[in-house]
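## tool: complex_structure
## caller: assistant
## args:
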Amino acid sequence: MLSFENDYSEGCHPQVLEALVKTNMEPLPGYGNDYYSEEAKKKIRKVLHNDDTDIYFLTGGTQTNETIITSLLKPYEGVIAAETGHIAVHEAGAIENHGHKVLTIPSYEGKIKASDLEAYVATFYQDGNHEHMVFPGMVYISFSTEYGTIYSLEELKDIAKICKQYKMHFFIDGARLGYGLMAKENDVDITDLSALCDVFTIGGTKVGALCGEAVVFTHHNAPWHFIPIIKQHGALLAKGRLTGIQFNALFTDDLYFKISAHAITQANKLKKLLQDKGYQFYLDSPTNQQFVIVDNEKYASLLKNVRVSYMEKYDETHTVIRFCTSWATTDEQLLELEKLL
Amino acid sequence: MLSFENDYSEGCHPQVLEALVKTNMEPLPGYGNDYYSEEAKKKIRKVLHNDDTDIYFLTGGTQTNETIITSLLKPYEGVIAAETGHIAVHEAGAIENHGHKVLTIPSYEGKIKASDLEAYVATFYQDGNHEHMVFPGMVYISFSTEYGTIYSLEELKDIAKICKQYKMHFFIDGARLGYGLMAKENDVDITDLSALCDVFTIGGTKVGALCGEAVVFTHHNAPWHFIPIIKQHGALLAKGRLTGIQFNALFTDDLYFKISAHAITQANKLKKLLQDKGYQFYLDSPTNQQFVIVDNEKYASLLKNVRVSYMEKYDETHTVIRFCTSWATTDEQLLELEKLL
Amino acid sequence: MLSFENDYSEGCHPQVLEALVKTNMEPLPGYGNDYYSEEAKKKIRKVLHNDDTDIYFLTGGTQTNETIITSLLKPYEGVIAAETGHIAVHEAGAIENHGHKVLTIPSYEGKIKASDLEAYVATFYQDGNHEHMVFPGMVYISFSTEYGTIYSLEELKDIAKICKQYKMHFFIDGARLGYGLMAKENDVDITDLSALCDVFTIGGTKVGALCGEAVVFTHHNAPWHFIPIIKQHGALLAKGRLTGIQFNALFTDDLYFKISAHAITQANKLKKLLQDKGYQFYLDSPTNQQFVIVDNEKYASLLKNVRVSYMEKYDETHTVIRFCTSWATTDEQLLELEKLL
Amino acid sequence: MLSFENDYSEGCHPQVLEALVKTNMEPLPGYGNDYYSEEAKKKIRKVLHNDDTDIYFLTGGTQTNETIITSLLKPYEGVIAAETGHIAVHEAGAIENHGHKVLTIPSYEGKIKASDLEAYVATFYQDGNHEHMVFPGMVYISFSTEYGTIYSLEELKDIAKICKQYKMHFFIDGARLGYGLMAKENDVDITDLSALCDVFTIGGTKVGALCGEAVVFTHHNAPWHFIPIIKQHGALLAKGRLTGIQFNALFTDDLYFKISAHAITQANKLKKLLQDKGYQFYLDSPTNQQFVIVDNEKYASLLKNVRVSYMEKYDETHTVIRFCTSWATTDEQLLELEKLL
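## result:
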């Protein structure tokens, strides 16, 4: 069945698969100490123009988020996120399960505003009794967000400034980093990230890999003995090669960026299709996730032929649904979809 | 200095102290297995008209809340509370530190509404993807609330009904239970609680004891092996007598209720004083906590002679402050205060 | 370089890789709700002759162990293991990090004795004060063990009996299950496991897969809402297909057992090589891990041409090292090794 | 009934009680910010000849141990203790419940040996693979120990030296500090502790207080924001006065040391009584806990008239039991006991 359900429906990009096939029988050291993991790190550092990074490869998004967040926070600290942030809503309480509170501030189509952030933190420190409250120790945002939106460079700088002022870590969840960076409206370059934030991830799972998220600490600020911490969180692959080989392939000849750009091209075609068919957009997303409001009958009829994601109830007779493109979306699939819309 | 800062400024009620003095040299078994702890439990059961309770004495409010909540919840569950709830704001993240998320819904002067609760839970279960979200496993309210307000019996029944329907534990934090029950406007009897909720606490720390909260599981529903769990949370006193003797005194001859009623009498006098002096009330509290809005100069001048609590900034030139009465508040103190207002 | 370092040096078995390649572009539902995951479960159930199993696929061993153990245990319980058990020594404290104590009993070449287990538990319950101690809630063993040894069916039955008697979960860590089952000396059939234990794992990472451990609850006894729990532990793959497809391949035409048997055949050849060269064995292992005591000069010289594992210092001049075979070990590699021994 | 069961059977020392009574109606700031808590800290600093201490008052032993240990350790670290250590055996897994492993080494009548400690740590760091193991981050001992024994100054210096060499925190659990310091055989002065260890406790619960342990960080090394951490562990008393007033009384006119010395005097009388009656000692304890081996019939007959503690089964017909003296033990009680022995 045709699927626009999400950006993790297929396996991996053919070039990534080829790399796995080609290296399959090479015996390699375990736990990420292999040649390909090292190569992948070198290539990422080169792309970032930053040799001061500590880079690790973990397996999935929730795992990566909770390992980063809970290992950087002090016991009395929490992490600030949009009330719609992935860590706040869709990780089954993984952050709390590992001991820390998610402190939420308003979400504007998935984004937070620097002014809200500043107000939150300023109020916290002005309060006479804050030793009984959870200290804001980190700011978490996603790029692109859960609603497909992106921050401008200016917006990121404003958030980064507040983080520095109040000594909070700034963490950018890049589960869909490629799709954010390749958006036409985007003015953030991947080389900007090191100066902006303390740690970010480069998502593989949704951008061409079978699994894998690269964790980038931007200024040799990985927690001390991060390997035992990763192990302790159940996040250390014996066959570290699995993520190393994939990221090495993704960062060879700009594959990561090319396939992200492809998803954006297909998303723009999809957007036009939806517009032409008169669909009402829930918000204006510049990336690979497109949200539309459909009446419930239309939704039911669509589901017979194409997989899409349920987002939320809009009103008694309408539903917000999501169409996703990805590195794997073909023109043929879009043509087929057109007939069904 | 005169203090209306809170309801835990003095030691304990003289009759409680006397009980401690009188029993001081008796050798008693440790960890709550003493005669007085047993007596106290019997008296509480009698007051509740409920022999099916499991009763334990812990030391402080945050400790009690986190031990109850985290031992009743399943790993995938969180606890619903008002966004102003003590566990949500003022326990330094103790619930999260022990692995669980506090799920917040709107607060109306410290209270939640059954309709909001129902909407929250109904939405949760209607959502297609709730296996990635934190399940609502418990509802937490405080009685009286952090803002001195109380729920009507009807309101409690409505909340209890939703809890039963969705199989959520219902927990009433009674850190200030006595002050809530003795309010003139209150229509809830302590014997109502067993039918309404699964577990509640009878606060000692703020109502006449040096320390101590009684935990009442209303239908033999204490977690299996609760003693090791209490121990594990660092909440098991070697000298369990300390809480046992105090609660035994508090539940002898209705002392707990009498001293709570005294605090309410004094609160009503205080309220009148404040009204007469033209103070603007932040909200209408029927219990021992009174909240007023003062301009910042007045606030500064008051602080020279009387301790009150800072609550929050009201606007650039005004502050919300709190005056508390307690079992210990005397007419002399009120007279002295009158001169300073 | 030649490697006998471990059983996770290569990628995956060619037939597993082929399955990944063949299915790569099929869009499939996420989080394990795909056709191949379902097929794999069916095949495993068939092999086990047990339709009452709950089966889940996780990614790695430590992750799997801590998720199973900490979700089955009550808060006041710990897990009994050999003092050499993987969870006791080599998981960086993952069990404790998730809240539970590992209670150790003596190890005999990696195995525990039923008599020690019984003595431990009997003593615990006879002790007057055990409410201040960690309750034994589970028994953990590995099959084959960290030292390559295996339990006889009789030994497993004895352990199982004690577990039933004292109401402890019995968990068998099968990270190397295939290698244990295919040992010549083994008298345990995979169909025996359901009657013996409450939960066991079928290791993929060390037996032909890129990653993946199948978790088998033997009598519909998976923790309620196990998916959110897995998610919370960072162990839920968005592309659940990755483990599903691999286990489906491994359980097609008995591949899992055939490749395990191959590793044993190669291990026996290796054993003979080592014996012929006069190596001193540290213990007699019937499976794919072979432990020998070498003098430190020999060790240093070996390391120039072949990767082996350091186990422990034997004495001032000798070291215990490990040679592993696996599904991937070829006759050519053994011939090459022969020249270096 | 006569009780030699433990050192926490009575309430508190009369002078401590008097202090509570005298201050009872003074309104004081909460959470330890009161005059008496400050006075108590000053007096303790004076006794220690150390103004660089950070001092906090917590309520009970397990709570204090887990709060100190888990707030000082890094996530990948565990705490080394004797296999008989309180934290290893009798705290219901509180350390593990808060995320950390207790690493045990042999116990010699409750004490650890510096040579065992050094061997343990040296082996750990020599092991090639220690990134998958729990790092030794702290050494925990008790003084006096759970078996009433004490360390010599030399022994403590040896342990301290290893701690410094391997950068491990050194924590001395002083639940029975007074009884250890006042033993005739003791050559450690309380002023020695600051130079020896990083943190120690001064037990109140077993030495004259109703509850309370003073935590002394010896060189301004309390964890940053320790108050929120204490709060988060449920260990912050609203009425901090309760512990402050008691410790102020205990450290006025050397009361703490005088009453500890009294317990030792009584213990020596008790010891002589037991010797005279031909009791077999389990070990030679110089402090307030005395362990003897009795046949089971004798044990049963004793229990009819005097409470003592069961320690462990000695053999089929004998049991190890404990007699305790304390600050409260009178000559009359010893006379009465003599008749029953």
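## assistant note: DSSP finds 14 helices and 13 strands in chain D. The first helix of chain D runs from residue 14 to 23. Handing back to user.
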